[in-house]
């Protein structure tokens, strides 16, 4: 983009209460059948309007049409058993009832393509579309078939690549893979995680991004963060290899966390979506808070490669809070843009 510091969000945004139970993950739909389809489209219109009015430059669907950032994609693959869910520990942190792999995995039909076309028709701004990353998908189910994390990740990468190519054709400008698991399984990231991600991006001409964070602002995550010590240096272990990868943009958590800003220097040459909004608190940042985070990141990231963003998705927050945070993000970016342009 030619505009300095274009703003965007990491992923999900709150759903309207008429569509799904608010402030809850895996929230059940409140509509069904045709009404649900129409409701999802209306929610897409609303979330787009809220982003545009708030001054967000790179817009998204806010994940209005999916119940969860990982499971909704998995639901559309063959080889997955959704009837017999099992409880597994996700990212070594919390238990969830998840589907299982019981046969060969493949993508039977487009998952988000109609939604992406719909969004494309509503806006002239660049669109970013989030898909789950292969490693995070592996970590959000049980596997009774391949029984090998790397093998399964590469099967998922194939399915993701098919979806990503169709999203690109639908007019999506940036395809983002969400890999919170990259902050947990550090050795595996270097052994096969990045390679699987590159497989998912193979042949794409649009920009690609990977989002690596410390998770939604839910209790299991905030409790986990308390055990991580004074400085969070997970990124330090994976960024050197990510810097050498073919991925264009890295989206990461910064504001209010304990990530030392100097780790950003490890991404030299990459575009960086700097998390300047904390999604784990309902307290709304001031524009000056956001500006301070951007200024700090600017010590390590070139101005033309710095994209202010949120730390993670905002689905569990109230709509008022999320709107306030979007406006603060845009206003903070405005402040630093003026400073740098002066
Ligand atoms: Zn995240």
TrEMBL record:
Gene3D superfamilies: 3.20.20.210. GO terms for molecular function: 5-methyltetrahydropteroyltriglutamate-homocysteine S-methyltransferase activity; zinc ion binding. Its cofactor is Zn(2+). Residues 5-329 form the Cobalamin-independent methionine synthase MetE C-terminal/archaeal domain. One of its GO terms (biological process) is methionine biosynthetic process. Keywords: Metal-binding, Methyltransferase, Transferase, Zinc. This is 5-methyltetrahydropteroyltriglutamate--homocysteine methyltransferase. It comes from Alteromonas confluentis.
